[in-house]
Write a structure and sequence with these properties.
The chain is mainly alpha-helical and 64 residues long. Helices cover 48% and strands 9% of the residues. A two-stranded antiparallel ribbon has the order 1-2. The chain binds zinc ion. The site of zinc ion has 8 residues, from loops.
Length: 64
């Protein structure tokens, strides 16, 4: 969970197959080629974790 391997597994899995959310590990059925996370929240959380500049930007907007 939370690994690049989990992300790549979800990315390369076939549409319609069961994949684990790279962020939380929950299993879900992949609905389309871009569907890699159980929910939008976890997709955002994943990308935020891996992009500190984006995180800073989001945090700076929150504080205003
Ligand atoms: Zn998740």
């Amino acid at each position: 969970v939370g690994s690049i391997e989990a992300y790549e597994a979800a990315d390369s899995a076939q549409v319609g197959s069961e994949v684990g959310c790279p962020h939380c590990g929950v299993m879900f059925k992949k609905r389309n080629a871009q569907h890699k996370f159980c929910c939008a929240k976890h997709r955002d959380a994943w990308h935020n974790e891996r992009d500190p500049k984006r995180q800073e930007f989001i945090e700076s907007r929150k504080s205003k």
